[in-house]
Amino acid sequence: MNFKSTLPYFAFLFFLMGMTQDAKAQDPRFSQFYAAPLQLNPAMTGVFEGRFRVNANYREQYASILGNDPFRTIGTAFDMRFKIVGDDYMGVGVSAIHDEAGVGAFTTDRGYLNLSYMKQLSGGRYTPNDQYLIFGGQFGAGQNSVDWDQYWFSAQFDDGIIAPNTNLNNEEPGIGGASETTNVYLDFNAGLMWYAIFGENTSIWAGAAMSHLNSPDVSFLGENETLYTRWVGHIGGEFPLNPSLSVLPAVAVMGQGPSLSTTVGANFRYTNHDWNEVAIRTGVWGHITNKVDGIEDSEGSKISMDAATVAMILEINSWNVGVSYDVTTSNLKVSNNSRGALELSLIYVHPAKDRIKVNCPKF
């Protein structure tokens, strides 16, 4: 491998170093946030038109640069709903997320029990005009791990061969050897959501959530490295354009420590209205981030759109299958040729009996 061929790789590393200098312990995210409800807000537990729901999400980022060691995120969830009093319900579920960051196999694993209470504000069994206020919580545990053998440090750069030599002492206290894990830590999240149904293919929803309320310690070296509390605000809806076509705009804003992330856009949904319904959604989304440490871009701005996401979702009866691709629009596009992240989503909703069916919005 010659020096010229490695330029994009080193440019990518320096880009990440500049981005993450003060962005410790950040959570992974999905571009298809609307297809990962329990990862977004625990108050979305039980908010679906069915008996139970199963979710699976997969994201792979920077494979064009990191090859077989890209950033990978896998999320899974299962939830269901029970009637409590009148038309109020309780949602119960479990969810988990696994995240791997690059060559060093920095891994995060978390699992949660999800609970929610759905309080009806208006509507009823025989009218589609329902309103609900939902309170939700997640109670779980997590653990991080890292493989130090996959890293090299400045003290291991051998001037004689002009390359890293991992046989040299890294001179980093407490760092070295095989994989290391943090202690298992408890984690608590909470959220609130409201939605209203105004008719077929017409709805609006909004929510907010706070994650890592207990600021768990995720340090490897016993230095009390706490996980930043993350806040999320999201709003969206569905609005018909004609009997077969509707638009589903949404925005999700996330803040964690010094980092701010906003995903905004819309999917258009076309349905054939057959008894054996098939629907197609397609849309474009923008991902906007801030510059940590107040660093400005070449135009003097402290915010930028780092990716544009093209998404397509196929609905077949009880199944939703989604695929999206993030096209890099930031300065990193020079290194990865605008090739960002591939994301897949799968949702199965088991049909409910009419007497326990709840009108819910589409996400």
Summarize this structure briefly.
The protein is mainly beta and 363 residues long.
Give me some keywords for this one.
4 helices; 363 residues; mainly beta; Porin; 14-stranded antiparallel barrel
Q: Sheet with the most strands?
A: 14 strands, antiparallel, barrel
Tell me which CATH architecture applies here: Beta Barrel
Instruction: Give unreliable regions as ranges.
Output: 1-23
Order of helices and strands: HHEHEEEEEEEEEEEEEEEHE
What's the tally of helices? 4
Mean pLDDT: 84
Structural class assignment: mainly beta
How far the N terminus sits from the C terminus, by CA atoms, comes to: 47 Å
CATH class: Mainly Beta
Report the radius of gyration as a whole number of Å: 22 Å
Strand content: over 45%
Strand order of the largest sheet: 1-2-3-4-5-9-10-11-12-13-14-15-16-17
Task: Give the beta-strand count.
Answer: 17
Which range best describes the helical content: under 10%, 10-25%, 25-40%, 40-55%, 55-70% or over 70%?
under 10%
